[in-house]
Amino acid sequence: MIAPSILAADFGKFAAEVEDVINAGCDWIHIDVMDGQFVPNITMGPQVVEALRSRFHCTLDVHLMVQKPQQVIPDFVQAGADVITIHQEATPHVHRGLEMILQSGVKAGYALNPATGLDGLAYVADIIDVLLIMTVNPGFGGQKLIPATLDKIRAARQRLVDLNRKQVRIEVDGGINAETIGAVKDAGAEIFVAGSAIFAEVDRKKAIGALTTALAAGK
Fold it and tell me: Which InterPro entries has this protein been placed in (predicted)?
């Protein structure tokens, strides 16, 4: 599953950019929400999700890179998010936040920064649908994948098997392109967030095709 990150899209023709990648074959759209506190940048809010929901029927994958995510989860639920992911590092009450998401009828994602270990996974594995492993430090597009995160993905996949939660899907975000996607898949990832690797190309169908071909080839 390839999920284009609209953080890399041309905001001057936003709807057309999203329509372009959907027509190119992507079923998920990844929406990076940044508050200027948890990460340095400020991006988009629930109004963007609401606008996309009114026009498109794809899965809207909302990644909350915000402090105190419990305060804004209801807004993104109401806006029409299909998946809402919150960070372990963003709140001391991540379990409560994940339960809020699930009780709203939305799929719950649990995100970990590159330097955050897997110790907390055992406490939330039974209530998450997606484990998002950041393969770069969050907050900026166009970064290179951190090689050490491949071992973390492998360990996370084994941990989920040990916890009898192998149905949890591992998503990766950061530095995903045709050169890295095969190794990330082989490590155990299933959902691949790609920004500049797609939106920096004029022919989005060709760009997504290159990622798909690399996935099939593996390493």
Answer: Aldolase_TIM, Ribul_P_3_epim, Ribul_P_3_epim-like, RibuloseP-bd_barrel
